[in-house]
Amino acid sequence: QKEVEQDPGPLSVPEGAIVSLNCTYSNSAFQYFMWYRQYSRKGPELLMYTYSSGNKEDGRFTAQVDKSSKYISLFIRDSQPSDSATYLCAMGPGSGGYQKVTFGTGTKLQVIP
Amino acid sequence: EAQVTQNPRYLITVTGKKLTVTCSQNMNHEYMSWYRQDPGLGLRQIYYSMNVEVTDKGDVPEGYKVSRKEKRNFPLILESPSPNQTSLYFCASSLYEGQPQHFGDGTRLSIL
Fold this sequence. Notes:
heterodimer, A: five-stranded antiparallel sheet, about 0% helix, globular, B: mainly beta, seven-stranded mixed sheet, four-stranded antiparallel sheet
């Protein structure tokens, strides 16, 4: 079983839809959680960074962490064609030993005009 | 502009011919790392460095070497490339280990 599971998609939605992207994980030591966006032929860029459980909002993006269920989500409101990309979740232990970051395999999102 | 720069962006080469992929960051970051990205497998860490002259193996280090002689540079060396090293490679850096990382735009390597 992988430490981090992410549905690869692809996920196709019409412009303006609310998008929900999710990851599950098995390592209870994970304390901090990130979402990266990766456009074609580009490197991943950080979208959201959260520590421990709860919600964090940034414009049209909301990151949600439920440590009791080992489940994290990224919501995109009013999705735009420019949101079409692959979204990677990532997480790390936050304390003790080497702070290795573990990535999900990515979900490919297409927003159709 | 804060950035991680990789070169080359694309390379097609043959088995056994030594190659180096350069990586440079201008953010004075302590931590640097190399990943390979393969379909269905996601990003896998090859090597990382916590500071100058300090490097360690990641999850898939076989067939690769790195060095960190200066803080800004972290080259990836394939001494004798093989076809199973055909992949998309990313260099990344962060202020310290465990912090969100800045990624380069990738190097697509094809080993024939």
